[in-house]
Specification:
The protein has two domains: 62 residues; 96 residues, 2-Layer Sandwich (Alpha-Beta Plaits). α3 packs across α4. It is built from four helices and four strands, in the order αααββαββ. A four-stranded antiparallel β-sheet has the order 1-2-4-3. Helices cover 56% and strands 25% of the residues. The mean pLDDT is 83. The chain is rod-shaped. The longest helix has 59 residues. The termini are far apart. The protein is α+β, with helices and mostly antiparallel strands and 170 residues long. InterPro entries: PilO, Transl_elong_EF1B/ribsomal_bS6. This is Pilus assembly protein PilO. Pfam families: PilO (PF04350).
C-alpha cells in the first residue's frame, strides 16, 4: 500500500510540477491568441473601411460636374490672385469700380477650411452695387458677405461701398 501511495503522490507531484512549469507559457499563449484576435479584427475593420472608401469614390466619380463646382468653390489653395481677379471681373461686369482690397488669411487648427477675410471698397451707382452683390452671390467661388457700409455724395450721384467678405479654401 505504501508503494501505491508513493507512486500516486509522485505522479500527482509530477503533474503539479508540470502544470507549474507550463502555466506561464500557457498564459503567454492565451495572451498572444487574444492579441492576434484583436489584430485580425483591426485588419478586418481596415479592409471594410477601405472597401467603403472605394465604393464612395466610385459613386463620386458619377458626378464629375458637381465635383468640379465644389473644387472651384473651395480651392485647395487660397489662390489670392484668382480671388482678386474674381472681385475685379465682377466689379467690371456690374459697373462698379474696385478702389481697394485688404485681405487676411485665417487658419484655425480645429477647422478644415481656411478663411480669407477681405475688406473691399467699390464706387459706383446703387444699381451697380445691387448687380455686384448678385454677381458675387452667383460666383463660382464660395464668397460670403459679412457686412456692407454704404456712403454717398449728393452732388455726384455715386456711392462708396465697403464690403466685408469671407471666402474659403482648404
Amino acid at each position: 500500500m505504501n508503494r501505491t501511495l508513493l507512486i500516486g503522490l509522485l505522479l500527482l507531484g509530477g503533474v503539479a510540477i508540470g502544470l507549474f512549469l507550463t502555466m506561464p507559457a500557457y498564459q503567454e499563449y492565451q495572451q498572444d491568441r487574444f492579441l492576434l484576435g484583436q489584430r485580425a479584427q483591426e485588419v478586418k475593420n481596415q479592409e471594410t473601411y477601405f472597401a467603403d472608401l472605394a465604393s464612395v469614390k466610385a459613386r463620386l466619380e458619377e458626378f464629375p460636374r458637381e465635383l468640379a463646382k465644389v473644387e472651384a468653390a473651395l480651392p485647395l489653395d487660397p489662390e489670392l490672385p484668382l480671388f482678386y481677379d474674381l472681385l475685379q471681373k465682377n466689379a467690371a461686369l456690374s459697373g462698379m469700380v474696385l478702389q481697394s482690397v485688404a485681405v487676411s488669411l485665417e487658419e484655425a487648427k480645429d477647422q478644415p477650411l481656411r478663411r480669407i477675410s477681405a475688406v473691399v471698397e467699390f464706387t459706383g451707382s446703387y444699381g451697380s452695387l445691387k448687380q455686384l452683390l448678385s454677381n458675387l452671390n452667383r460666383a463660382s467661388r464660395a464668397v460670403a458677405l459679412r457686412a456692407v457700409n454704404i456712403s454717398g455724395s449728393q452732388d455726384q450721384g455715386t456711392l462708396k461701398a465697403i464690403l466685408e467678405l469671407k471666402a474659403y479654401s482648404y
